[in-house]
Amino acid sequence: MAGALSPNLQVPQDLQLRHRLALLASHLVVALVALVAIGGATRVMEAGLACPDWPLCYGRFLPGQQMNVQVFLEWFHRLDAFVVGVALLVFVGVGVALRRRLPTWLPWIASLALALVAFQGALGALTVTHLLASPLVTAHLATALVLVSLVSGLYQRLAMAPEVFRQSPVVPRWWQALAALALVLVFSQCLLGGLMASQWAADQCLASGEACQWLLAHRQLALGAAGGVALMAATAPLLPQGLGHLQGLAFGAIGLVAMQIGLGIWTLKLQLAVPAVTVAHQLVAALLVALLSAVLARSLSPLQPHPSQELAHG
Hints:
mainly alpha, 2 domains, 11 helices, disordered N terminus
């Protein structure tokens, strides 16, 4: 009898471990969204080359004498990336060492995120050494957004603890497809915006009427992305009962879309002259990617109760 019950005695510790990792993942999402926003501020303030070397800045970890706003932005951007890398290294270590007590997918997803951080660091170094070449800057942004999406989904899957979501109904495949489509459209819109920004196309268009095709394409794709998110949110009330959390996330996404459109219009009316508004536009874009990734992660499979939890509650 004792041998039959002993696996269940481990359940509270397993859930506690999972909750702690979920908390770490939530902090990582915040750090990654901040990383995208700080990267946007670095570009807007023309601070991408404020630290002429890599990974140090003026040959030091903390460039005291050279420190100004631009150097601080570039230095802090690198520091945030370093902290994210260390946190993911801890994540991978715990996931591998305690893999028998955690979901089987966790070490693999965490390892993928860690590899992406390493790749992101390499792209950051190339961005500096190649003097902010547009393809490298865009690839740097794309990798950051993939990380935001991946870690946001990782957090949601860890947070879906059995004792909270014990009898959640199955999400229809058609709605899963809508959530995936909305994420792909918004992600593509972010990449187009990053490519446009890396070439300073909006500035050129407003100043001299050149490179306006990029700004036009950004506007047109924005309509498609907004439509995709709106369709997902509009059909959320059709989901089965018990999926109110998905409806809330979907409505939150449409709110971010409305905010993003307003910031985009405001940015152009200000002639890109107010960095805070431009950075806010990029921040909301990263938040939208994180939120849509959360929606998709929560909808991919039904949340069935853990067998040992059934015994515990039985």
